[in-house]
Task: structure prediction
Amino acid sequence: MCGIVGYVGHRQALDVVLGGLRRMEYRGYDSAGVAVLDGAGSLTVERKAGRLANLESALDTTGRDAFTGTAGMGHTRWATHGAPVDRNSHPHRDSSDRVAVVHNGIIENFAALRAELEAAGVELTSDTDTETTAHLIARAFDEGDTKGDLAASVRTVCRRLEGAFTLVVTHADQPDLIVAARRSSPLVVGVGEGETFVASDVAAFIEHTREAVELGQDQLVVIDRDGYVVTDFDGEPAQGKPFTVDWDLSAAEKGGHEYFMLKEIEEQPDALANTLRGHFESGRIVLDEQRIADQDLRDVDKVFVVACGSAYHSGLVAKYAIEHWCRLPVEVELASEFRYRDPVLDRDTLVVAVSQSGETADTLEAVRHARTQKARVLAVCNTNGAQIPRESDAVLYTHAGPEIGVASTKAFLAQIAANYLVGLALAQARGTKYPDEVAREFSELEAMPAAVHKVLSTVEQVRDLGRRMADSKAVLFLGRHVGFPVALEGALKLKELAYMHAEGFAAGELKHGPIALIEEGLPVVVVMPSPKGRAVLHAKLVSNISEIQARGARTIVIAEEGDDTVRPFADELVEVPAVPTLLQPLVSTVPLQVLAAEIARTRGYDVDKPRNLAKSVTVE
Ligand code: F6R
Result:
């Protein structure tokens, strides 16, 4: 939550910072702001509530010429402390307007810091936790051992802060450098020719450089146009971890699509292929990083998948495969509940933490809790070097590429594929599958990009259906077996994008309550199992459909090609390719993503930036 960017170099900082913010708006869009320092140490700030477009209009009114300078910073906000109004927007300044700060995260002891500042006569002008840091840094810069040294001043203040934060700080008296610091919130450095960047995400500077450096926990970096220097919060020299970003600017742009989500839906075959690539070598499943001994993997006797939202649904799908392949009990748990209920964990428990961003606060805390209980943690993550993989014992990266639409699409499919690889790795380690069986399962997975590509031919049919469903008040989703989590995911997509009441149910539960919701014309989306692969469940779902149809529901059926039995019960039929049962979610989810996006678009909503949401949920 919140996107931040900082720049020191040879270009106009305002242009670089605004370019970065445009690609990080997915992290929050309650307000946006910029600060630019000119070489003479004059600090110019503009900030506006609402989307980045509001800030850009304000800059046009003020005149962009006022923002001349080659060092600057910017922020796009998801509000935590204080309403999304101009005065709570970042950057925040100290009383003398010499320090500017942007912040991502929550400073948990801000009330005490605020009281201390007020007692010292400082007048605070916002309701935010962030503003306290601007005043504290300014005071540290003016006195004692840290006098005149911005990096030392920021370190002193960071040592006093509790909570999660990334801070980017400038001081008018040191206009050639920017200081940034992080604890449990993301921060990467971009290293260019004669210019250096800091940002929450490499997307902010990918247009200028692909050379990046990831910072560790409680580290601080000073950037200037010649490079960067990293220390810990005590000022001891420290090392960042350099890496080269393996995608380019086009991946972070719409590329002619009306919105990112549609582009990302269409990128799903590539996301799957890239996630699988390189993970089956010399007849064995291989993870990206493995700091768990093979013997410990063999000894695993219980698996927990912990995650939030769509990532949680990917775990629900994986449970069917992992239990089937590995003969291990698998519990799938919302990360926000996990550590509050004293789960039974020990060194033979494997906790699989699934997160696109790798920075979701609840999932990160679940990882930490699991590790204190001696469980092994394996991260499935889409973001290189994010906090969750850093704190895990093993990592499998999903190579879905940057996902800019707030609603997860290609990352979700890639998570399912990666979770399956985890299942196969476990089956291989435990010997519950012979090598040729593992090879066969992997080759079935390898056929999925083509199958998903085929589903994309239904996009226009589903968009048309979405336009016709846009007036509905509510939609129900039904599924069984692996189709149940798909129903949950379809409902989540519709809620978050179209702000429509939507519920997913296990179809077998219908008669235990939900059938009372059925009324004339209510759209019910049914995810059918294969008539061949799951004949018994298929027959039961056909009965369920006929029951709800008899009560007036309008049935929208996602079924395997050639499934003629279900056809008479489908008011609308969307056909997906026949694939092995466990892999069916990879094809049946796609029409539900398109449906939600098109209903949202028809209702006039911003598909990529649904209200109240942000892509990375870094606060609990
Ligand atoms: C829904 C969605 C969210 C995320 C959830 C977890 O479309 O995107 O439910 O799946 O916030 O995020 P990550 O995977 O970053 O931990």
